[in-house]
Write a structure and sequence with these properties.
Strand order of the largest sheet: 1-2-27-26-25
Radius of gyration: 23 Å
Largest sheet: 5 strands, antiparallel
Strand content: 35-45%
Shape: globular
Distance between the termini: 25 Å
Number of strands: 27
Helix content: 10-25%
């Protein structure tokens, strides 16, 4: 759902909350006798009187919510785009019918995110989000929603976490409960499992390097990253729980840049470790001194210019570094409004430098735009 302004988002949210309160009140009427009903009618009138007072309070000046970063007068580098939380966000006409469905008791929760974690985007713009027991596939062009891994039998997911897509459309999903990786085609049909019994203890974040035919998966319990071919053949291991410059402690998420370098979120050591495509250690990237120190780094992605984005679930922010590893911007804060987060997790960048962030406890994906060279070139072409 794309909001023309933050105010419009807040008005819809406020209206839904008040309507829910009224409907709950009306449900009580059938359980009370006539005298109690009269008493409730008096309270009902008072509700509207106080509701007007509340409305006046809501119109009072509020702290503005950031939708661009950094704030003016600095040149903006990131701007808020949209929110995706259900299939209705792919079908504008469905939004107009939400009130009818809500009143009629037919609000569709089947197509709504519950507790999302991982996210990725394929070359066709389809957005894949891991959630409890399944993967949501939001197809913008087709205006449809597909599920993966929700059918009984082979390929059924229990607690999917990481997700990655190869250039040929194969979808790789890590399941922390099954302790395996599952592979599907673009239509959601199960292809195979990766990982022998006991090989993976707690598979989480994943990344695909289609150019080199590699699949990388972080295993938090074994403090390692395992490299496979895209067909599931094991290649090598990056491991060790030693607090030195090259070892890992509780790695959670992975990204790969255009040169094939592997970026591992070393959550237990509050840093990002960088290795080459063969697993040789290259360098460490940390967030530096306070207030920019990582507390609980999670998701990671790389945009077309080589900028690195790291989500910090505890600080409710995204830290952004240039391709040399120098910090230059932070985005977001705690909250429920656009540009605010509650336990953010996975993050992904598409070919047009749109940045997708899983806002886990707000049960949604927020989309931002990096205002880099690609975006500037597009604006010139559209003039």
């Amino acid at each position: 759902m794309h909001f023309k302004s933050v105010k419009s988002y807040k008005r819809v949210k406020s209206f839904k909350l008040k309507l829910l309160q009224l409907l709950k009140l009306l449900q009580l009427f059938t359980l009370l006798n006539f005298l109690k009903l009269l008493q409730l009618l008096i309270l009902f009138n008072l509700f509207f009187i106080t509701g007007c007072a509340f409305e006046e309070v809501e119109r009072m000046p509020e702290k503005p919510v950031n939708t661009v970063w950094p704030l003016p007068p600095a040149e903006p580098r990131i701007k808020f785009g949209e929110i995706i939380e259900s299939k209705d966000d792919l079908q504008p006409e469905a939004k107009s019918g939400w009130l009818k469905n809500f009143i009629g008791g037919e609000e569709d929760i089947e197509g709504r995110l519950i507790r999302p974690y991982g996210v990725t985007v394929d070359k066709e713009g389809r957005i894949y989000v891991t959630d409890v027991g399944r993967v949501f596939v939001f197809d913008r062009k087709g205006g449809s929603l597909l599920f993966m891994g929700d059918k009984l039998g082979e390929g059924q997911l229990r607690m999917p976490i990481g997700i990655a897509v190869s250039s040929d459309g194969r979808v790789y999903v890590s399941d922390v409960t099954a302790r395996k990786l599952f592979v599907y085609n673009r239509n959601g049909e199960f292809i195979r499992e990766i990982g022998r019994t006991g090989e993976l203890k707690s598979p989480s974040g994943m990344a695909v390097d289609s150019d080199r035919g590699r699949l990388y998966v972080a295993d938090a319990k074994t403090n390692s990253v395992r490299a496979y071919t895209l067909d599931g053949r094991f290649l090598f291991l990056i491991e060790g729980r030693v607090a030195d410059k090259s070892k890992l402690s509780f790695p959670t998420n992975i990204a790969v840049d255009s040169h094939g370098n592997i970026y591992v979120v070393d959550t237990g050591n509050f840093r990002v470790q960088v290795y080459n495509s063969e697993g040789k250690f290259l360098r460490t990237i940390s967030s530096g001194s306070k207030p920019k120190s990582f507390v609980r780094p999670k998701g990671i992605t790389i945009d077309s210019e080589g900028n690195m984005y790291v989500v910090d679930a505890a600080l409710q922010k995204i830290f952004i570094f240039d391709k040399e590893g120098n910090f230059f911007l932070e985005v977001g804060e705690g909250g429920t409004e656009p540009g605010q987060f509650s336990m953010p997790a996975g993050i992904a960048a598409d070919a047009d430098d749109r940045i997708y962030v899983v806002d886990q406890f707000n049960a949604r994906v927020q989309v931002f735009q990096y205002l880099g060279e690609k975006w500037k070139a597009l604006q010139l072409r559209q003039k």
